[in-house]
Fold this sequence. Notes:
- The protein is built from ten helices and eleven strands.
- The chain has one domain (about 55-265): TIM Barrel.
- It is globular, with a radius of gyration of 18 Å.
- Helix 1 (about 35-45) packs parallel to helix 10 and helix 3 (about 85-105) packs parallel to helix 4 (about 140-155).
- It is α/β, with parallel strands linked by helices.
Amino acid sequence: MNSLDFLPEGVRLAVSPLSWANDVLEDLGADISLETCLLDAAAAGYQGVELGRKFPREEGSLRPLLHDQGLALASGWHSGELAERRVDDEMAAAAAHADLLQAMDCKVMVYGEVAMMTPGSPLDAPMSQRLIMPAGEVSAYASRLTEFSKRLAGEYDLQLAYHHHLMMVTETFDEISRLFDTTGREVGLLLDTGAAGAGFDYHRLIERFGDRIVHIHLKDVRRAVMNQVRTDDLGFNAGVRCGMFTVPGDGAIDFAPVARFVRESAFQGWLVVEAEQDPSVAPPRPAVGRAFAHLAGLFGQQK
């Protein structure tokens, strides 16, 4: 078991199950069991995991699985549709997920906006075909997000962590800024270091919205692969299959800005190592072990 004393008090380190099994491309990691994922995560030294498609969604089944490996649940993704539907409908759609997160002592819910995306299979569509929210609709969307966040906090004691994401309505720095300049402060930001895939450096979000960051995904990017994906106008899923993403330390991203932010700010919560890649090409246990060592070294330098 690796020591986590390199992290500031109140900051914890988790790993996403995406290194073992992809949530969308179900052939990636289809033969890897949940038990293997949890065993590997604990052996590498992580304190928690996020939800994945192979996880049970009942506390009575999930809690003992995590407890047996000494792991906590950091959070889990909710596919939200507030770009197109009412807050009451979103609350109903999120209820079971929110119940589970609350029961598992989570403090945040990861929110990914999946409405207003390219028709058909949006993550397979060329990246140039991403739908962009009209400027005139942002204010109403921000109002719905704010109301949803208030109700999520009031009814479940969960903070919404809004996930900017490729192929979704808030991909670019300008789109994220426009939205967060309009929402209430109840809406928290999930900082994803893989923002390079959207063409900007993630530290710009730290500078602009550091006080809104409530959850952090640590994802690295293989820049040459990413550039080729953009040049060939491939889809998000094709980029994943090509190896566009990897774990911290295996790609081109400098994680020093996020380490400084975590050390010098009031941030309290989870850092989550995340890499959507093919486990048959990038064996998960060595990869997440390297990521742990990379982060330990990086934070150790900044003490």
